[in-house]
Amino acid sequence: MSVKTLEMRRSSASPLHDRPHERRLDQVDPYLLIATLLLIGYGLVMTYAVTVESRTLTGDPMQFVIRGALWAAIGIAVMVVVAMFDYAWLGTFAPLVYLVMLGLLGVVLVIGTSSLGAQRSVNFGGLSFQFSEVAKVLMIVVLAKFFADRGDKIGSPLTILGALVFLGPAVLLVYRQPDLGTSLVFVAIFFGMAFMAGARLWQLVGIIAIAGAAMPAIWSFLKPYQQARLTAFMDPYADPQGAGWNIIQSLIAVGSGGPTGKGLTAGTQSPLGYLPIAESDFVFAGLAEDLGFMGAVILFALYILLLFAALRVAFRARDPFGMLLASGVVAMLVFQIVVNVGMAISLMPVTGIPLPFISHGGSSLVSICFALGVLQSVAMRRPGAEIG
Amino acid sequence: MRSASRDFIRPNRFIAMAMVVVLVFTGLTVRLWDLQVTSGTHYRDLAEQNRVLRLAVEAERGTIVDRNGKVLARNLPGFAVTVIPVDVPRAKQVELATRLGALIARDPKDVSEAINVQRARNPYEPVKISLRPVARDVALLLTERGEMFPGVRVEAESIRSYADAVLYSPLLGYVGPVTEEEFAALRDKGYLQTDLIGRTGLEYEYEEWLRGQYGWREIERDAAQREIKQLAYSSPTTGNSVVLTIDDRLQKLIESELKKGVDQDLFTQAVGIAMNPQNGEILAMYSNPGYDNNWFINGITPEQMAQLNGDDRHPLVNKAIGDIYPPGSTFKMVTGLSALNEGVANRNTIVNVTSNVLSVGGFNFYDWRAHGSLDFVNGFAHSSDIYFYTLGGGNPNTGRAGVGPEAIFKYGSELGFGARTGIDLPGEATGIMPSPEWKQQAFDEAWTIGNTYHESIGQGFVAVTPLQLLNAYAIVANGGTFYQPHLLKEVVGPQGKVVFTQQPKVVRKVDIKPENLTLLRESARRVVTIGHAFMPNAKLPIAGKTGTAEFGSSAGKDTAGRNKLGFHNWFVSFLPKADNTDPTAEIAMVIFTFDSSRSLCENCFNPAVGMTQRILESYVLGAKP
């Protein structure tokens, strides 16, 4: 099939989906790809560091590393396959995607397994899936489609309200697990995408103002442990052995890492169990302890590379849908990074949000890989990236 | 062909988004710089404090043994129950406290309170919950059913154990936990909050020798306070063994005689002390009633405490040194020595006791019989009161002069009355050695001749501890040297090396002519051969002096239903090497019975005399182990 034919087909009116094999893989965004692979590698190194020397975990410590590598392989495969398909298919099936997303979140509440007081994952064939991780990416697709379709009425309050109607059930379902952190990720995605879609700023500010005014009501709605986390964030030393403990221990871990760190696996806070959930929620504290300021800055550099590459993909996207997909992913990643790292250094209250790529967890990694596959698909199909 | 309209790209918003990314990472980086580069050292110290725990390693307290190595105080392995508050779920604390309280016999409320206090102090460090050593089966149950007792740990502990507890408690005392107030002062000396310290007796006196030196170990611990590995170790040093001058065999011989008398209600309390007059070593010291000092080690119960406090014989007081009594006729030794040394009397001084009463100034002063003509030896041997009234206070009826209260005070003080002997035990009483000056100060009254008479026969104001009396006779027995009585023979280090030997300590050479002391020794021997303390079938040349003092009411019963009889009986003795007057005695002994039966004395069968004979004959002539 010649290039000409493709061009002609693209320019015709009806659904314009190219076929997977018709795009050359060398059209991928190299910065996005390099950042992705390096971050996956960094994540595996940290999984190794945090778990291999752990004296509190029972069983074979290498199992975490092997499982992490397996998930990384699956994630990369997912990314490649997704990249090969035209992202426009996602738009086509957006209503279905939305139903699938709600279904997944509903399933978690019905048959999910409890861990640490929250019902967040579903066990399936010996593996446990956190469907809310997938749901975040699916929400990006749904919102991208919605905002793209209403591109000419983007300034209308109905657009914002409509998007909130789609967002609402997902946020509530996640909140019910309960997973306040992830439900806030959904909200962040909404704001990021609405902003990039061109929504009126006063509308966005208005929503924030209304939410702010409703804080007292929301506060009473929070569970006691969530309230405790927020008060502990304000003053960790008020209850150093209770709610403030995690924060203090995390600060000690990060601070004790110093400029260059104690050396990979040579940290003490993480292996000795002073960091709770050291392989996921507090993985950054372990990283900062082992690798120090230097290691953290390298991580930040990779994130910045990834985020700017993703923003470039958005900027060069073929259509609003592609641009919004990329923007949503950027919003999601930035929010998760800020909240997770901020939590470790006491700039944010404690919430169970994984640090992209670094936190150990298949659902998170594969979901992100899926999202980045979509971004590569957007990149490969940007105007001017055609073969020839 | 490019898509015609790119209106959907809003560059300003892209710039804003990019700036958000840059600002976010700048903020995080600045914060990290502050934490890691600026304050890195501070947090590194905190991480080390988290990780490294320095724990004391308990040191064994030294043993206490008698002069032949018989162990009187040792340490037994035992179990203590501790709780780490952080491992006790708050919701289950009450349930746990109830369960644990029942097992270790402690009020669940106290258990819960102890956990709460520690929770506030440091919830990661264990707090000792058991007040007394825990039985082995309880310890086993706690370890085997760990899931029922979250946060509960069973730890090995060393428990002080006293053999022959009641027999030796007046001497040894006991150890007890340091109080919070004491700890503040003792911390610098290396004591721990959970430490034990000698509370009384020799445990108190020789705390410094007995106490071991704690070792320590540094462990790496995880957040759950589990020990991960040992980083450093310094071994503890066991305390020194204290070897006493006590001879367990003699101690038990004294006990067998005196305890029998108390058990049969012949008397309610009894003291027996033996010492070596040649060096001041205490060979035995017995005080009845005693108490079981293991009670204090095991955590004394309110019932036990009430029992000890409710006994009006005061079992917690070592009567050998801690209480004072009128010495009775045993004090005639002091009156006699005063008169002899001041030249008022000599061995041939005759007093005609033609009546059993001496009337002076309208008062009658009695003797126990009309003895007839007595010289010094016979006056002493038959314990004539009128003979010693005359030596002490003279006889105004005949114009004869006595030696007077000032001289008696001088020689009494010289012989150690009215002052602590300085024995190595806490709680020694001073006693009273009266003088006219003393009476003036104490009562604002002038001394009378009646005071002199009473003092001359050991009644009235004079009051002594049994040890003071024994010590005075020991000075006579050794020819005039006041050795400080002591219980410490030597101190043996943990490796078995003698690190300290107690040398005899001369308090003073008494200012009494040797020939007068010789006459006293001769007279004391006559007490046994012809006089007041006749010993049938005597096998040893025992010398001594009896004493009987009447006090208070002789009627009724005390709170425990024992007969109140109102008599003390004394017999102070010494045993010369041969039947002569040489100052060679290596044993001196005092036997004192309190609240003795009047009937025992009316025929002058002082119970202490027979006991002394049996004890010394068994000790000196009996089979030695």
Any overview of this molecule?
The complex is a heterodimer of chains A (388) and B (625). Chain A is mainly α and 388 residues long. Chain A is 66% helix and 3% strand. Chain A has a 3-stranded antiparallel beta sheet, covered by helices on one side. In chain A, a hairpin with a 2-residue loop joins strand 2 (118-124) and strand 3 (127-129). In chain A, helix 14 packs antiparallel against helix 15 (362-380). Chain B is elongated and about 150 Å long. In chain B, strands 2, 3, 4, 5, 10, 18 and 19 form a 7-stranded mixed beta sheet that branches. Chain B has a 5-stranded antiparallel beta sheet with strand order 12-11-23-22-21, sandwiched between helices. In chain B, helix 3 (93-104) packs across helix 4 (108-121), helix 14 (332-341) packs across helix 17 (405-414) and helix 16 packs across helix 19. Helices cover 37% and strands 21% of the residues of chain B. Chain B is an alpha+beta fold and 625 residues long. At the A-B interface, helix 1, helix 8, helix 12, helix 13 and helix 14 of A face helix 1 and helix 2 of B.
List the helices and strands and how they pair.
The complex is a heterodimer of chains A (388) and B (625).
Chain A (H helix, E strand, L loop, with lengths): L2 H9 L18 H23 L9 H23 L3 H5 L1 H18 L1 E3 L2 E7 L2 E3 L1 H19 L7 H20 L3 H18 L3 H13 L1 H7 L2 H11 L10 H13 L25 H33 L4 H25 L17 H19 L8
Chain B lengths: L10 H28 L1 H12 E6 L6 E2 L5 E13 L9 H12 L3 H14 L5 E2 L7 H9 L7 E11 L2 H8 L1 E4 L2 H7 L9 E5 H5 L1 H4 L4 E7 L5 E8 L6 E4 L3 H16 L5 E7 L6 E7 L5 H4 L4 H9 L8 H4 L9 H10 L9 E3 L3 E4 L2 E4 L5 E3 L1 H6 L3 H9 L11 H10 L21 H8 L5 H8 L9 H13 L2 E3 L4 E5 L5 E4 L4 E4 L4 H16 L13 E8 L16 E9 L11 E8 L3 H5 L4 H15 L4
Parallel strand pairs in B: 2-10
Antiparallel strand pairs in B: 1-8, 2-3, 3-4, 3-5, 6-7, 8-9, 10-18, 11-12, 11-23, 13-16, 14-15, 17-20, 18-19, 21-22, 22-23
